[in-house]
Amino acid sequence: MVDESLDCKGMMCPMPIVHITKKIKTMNPGQVLEVVADDVGSLEDVPAWADRTGNELMEKREDGGEFHFIIRKS
Amino acid sequence: MTSNDADDKVAIVVSEGSYDKAMASVFLGSTAAGLGMEVHLFFTFFGLELLKKNKRPRLKGMYRPFTGMFEKKMKGIGVESFQDMMDTCSEMGVRLYACSTSMEAMGLKKEQLRDGVDVLGASKFLDIAAGSKVQLFIG
Question: What ipTM was assigned to the predicted interfaces of this complex?
């Protein structure tokens, strides 16, 4: 159910958002992107980004210091 | 300029050219663009230096010798160099402006600046800023 994945581990703000933006541009509406990050800031940044851009944040989950996000492109 | 929706516009003045201000500018610029906002970055006074081709900004004062160390650290946490971040900003549609008065005062010609920079006066920038919900000053 995930179409694309993006590994943002080791990246600090604002790089995850920059890479997510670039990635989502290459995808089609309805496609699903999985992002893994370990910047604590991303926990609030990614939802804020999704909210502003109108993309749907389907899942946000913490797993051993890693943050997983599932985003559906609008 | 193209959008009438002030909510989605951010106008940022950059009046210092040190590494920290430079990075703050490209961080906020790229992030705002990533959030889908129309971003206008206006470089004035020492900030103008940042628009020079291949400019590598340094930390200020006594921290200057530690610039390389800092850049390395940034690279280690996935942050691109200032020049690469400027390219990223342009790619993401961030508009870059050079203050015409500062160019004259600093003796800078448009050919010395990176591609894609527009030269503006304060009135035009304020016109853009007046139509933006978010206005920031980095200096």
Answer: 0.86
